[in-house]
Write a structure and sequence with these properties.
The protein contains 10 helices and no strands. With 226 residues, it is mainly α. Helix 7 packs antiparallel against helix 8 and helix 8 runs antiparallel to helix 9.
Length: 226
């Protein structure tokens, strides 16, 4: 639907989408590859159609073709246009190139974040990568900044869990490794206040609290915290 006259928009609260996969198309294991074939022909005819290029990237990704997906997301980002889609394209390209062990993960996630500073998802991945590489200070600083970002008003593919507990968890773990056991405890308790928390995250945070209490008491770091 399209209207060329002035219009407004807002997010309708309380609505949940229930995705079903019972149709014939959903039962086809090659559906994404078939989408790629259709969209490649469409892009060949209309190479400057941003929607076609974006959904071609999406289809490459869903088909498991990471290199082609990353390349196509970058192509879409370079085309400009809708800022949310440009951001998401840069973000997905960064995620895919990380999965492909690209050494440019810092630059890629930073570029995605800088293209839309109201979206914290790239900061979560940056904080996580810094932590896993042993750079707990950078992990802590990046996660701390991410925790300051409010849930966005965007409409395109928001990863809600990152805003609810993902960044808090990264900040808490890096705080622990920096010797800030009390801060780790307080952040972990805050995470447990989240009304809808996946069981594996709840169990992980509860175990982290145990290690933080032990470290605070004995002044030693346990390698099991995560």
């Amino acid at each position: 639907m399209q209207c060329n006259q002035a219009k407004t928009h807002e997010i309708l609260q309380g609505v949940k989408n229930i995705y079903r996969s019972e149709g014939c198309r959903s039962q086809d294991p090659n559906k994404y590859l078939k989408d790629v074939q259709v969209l490649e022909k469409a892009v060949e005819k209309e190479p400057f159609n941003t929607r076609y290029v974006f959904y071609l990237a999406q289809s490459f990704r869903d088909a498991g073709l990471k290199e082609q997906a990353a390349k196509t997301y970058k192509r879409r980002a370079a085309m400009g246009g809708w800022d949310q889609e440009v951001f998401f394209s840069k973000y997905q390209a960064a995620c895919l190139e990380e999965a492909l062990d690209s050494p440019d993960w810092i630059e890629n996630y930073t570029a995605a974040f800088q293209s839309r500073p109201s979206r914290a998802e790239p900061l979560y991945h940056l904080a996580r990568k810094f932590r896993l590489s042993g750079n707990f200070l950078m992990g802590y600083l990046v996660a701390s900044h991410g925790c300051l970002i409010s849930y966005p008003e965007d409409v395109l593919f928001i990863q809600k869990w990152i805003y609810e507990y993902g960044l808090l968890l990264e900040k808490s773990v890096s705080a622990y490794w920096l010797g800030n056991y009390e801060e780790c405890l307080q952040l972990s308790k805050k995470i447990l206040e989240e009304p809808v928390l996946p069981l594996h995250i709840k169990e992980r945070v509860e175990k982290n609290i145990e290690w933080a209490l032990l470290a605070k008491k004995k002044g030693c770091i346990n390698l099991s915290i995560q």
